Amino acid sequence: MMPTAHRRLLFLLLALLSAVSILAASAIGSVTLDWARWSAAITDSSSEFGELVWRLRLPRAAAAWTVGALLSLSGCLMQVLLRNPLADPYILGVSGGASFAALLGMTLGLAAGILPALAWAGAMVSILIVFSLSRGEGPWSGTRLLLTGVVTASGWAALISLLLTLGPDSSLRGMLFWLIGDLSYARLPYWAPAILLLVFLACFGMARSLNVLAMGETTARLLGEPTRKLLWLVYLLASILTATAVSIAGNIGFVGLIVPHLMRLLVGSDHRILLPAAAMFGGLFLVLSDTLARTVLAPRQLPVGVVTALLGVPLFLMLLNRARVKQ
């Protein structure tokens, strides 16, 4: 276990780097601000570049950090739930329901402000479908939950393909960006940080139970944990986190898969340390990825999901090779 002093230093460093990354994102872009212009914009929102910083860049950076934290925390929970280090927040079909609902709204020409609510509603429908079909009788079955989630995700994928085929050409680009994961028009609704904080506090409060559950359901049961209720609670919390993230920025891949791996290698498997470390590093990672997406081909902007995939694939292959070498 990481010593207390090292733990505090790590959390302080991650918090500091997160703040610096958000401030840096507000200065860097197709129009990069020098120190004088940036400080003037920060202190006076009515200055020449004040609107650019306060109305566009800072809200986008805050949304990126929140979405990264949501996905990383959800990834930690999914990997405990399924006892599979390859599990990610999208594996059980929640993102499919959210994406279908959002793309349906785009196809119908609904206002952009309605799309997050539609995505959230679609995710909730997907959660209810998976919960209802996989619940069954008798003991908990992670295999049944996984199969139900995968089949549900496949069904949503078929419906999404149908929408892309039949949808108007004018909305096709926006639909594809949503599926890839994009923060270009993302705004941080007030309820998203509230959900992140409440779910994080709930998860942190049951960190000991998560540690026991990671050892196996039999071990957890022998140690007095109500495994069936605990597993369903973990599924519900992970799904809420995923639904919130997808409703803001679409399907941003690899964050919920890679970040828990990296943090587990760095801080160990104790969820009292892993959960806050993963949340903060996930936010930091997505802010940096989105800054790259905005600047690497400026003034053109890439969907941030492209950048996370390009960074995530080699990192994941390195992690797999590391695990193979250890064996």
Q: What topology does this entry show?
A:
Elements: H1 4-27, H2 35-43, H3 50-82, H4 94-107, H5 115-135, H6 142-166, H7 172-180, H8 191-205, H9 207-214, H10 217-222, H11 227-249, H12 255-267, H13 271-295, H14 304-326
Helix pairs in contact: 1-3, 1-13, 2-3, 3-8, 3-11, 3-12, 3-13, 4-5, 4-6, 4-7, 4-11, 5-6, 5-11, 8-11, 12-13, 12-14, 13-14
Question: What quaternary form is this?
Answer: single chain
Number of helices: 14
At the fold tier of CATH, the topology name is ABC transporter involved in vitamin B12 uptake, BtuC
Give a count of the beta strands, DSSP E runs of length 2 or more: 0
What is the name of the CATH superfamily? ABC transporter involved in vitamin B12 uptake, BtuC
* Rounded radius of gyration (Å): 20 Å
Q: SSE order, as H and E?
A: HHHHHHHHHHHHHH
Identify the CATH class: Mainly Alpha
Task: Give average pLDDT, whole number.
Answer: 87
Description:
There is one protein chain. With 327 residues, the chain is mainly alpha-helical. It has one domain: ABC transporter involved in vitamin B12 uptake, BtuC (Orthogonal Bundle), CATH 1.10.3470. The chain contains 14 helices and no strands.
Which descriptors would you attach to this protein?
327 residues, ABC transporter involved in vitamin B12 uptake, BtuC, mainly alpha, 76% helix
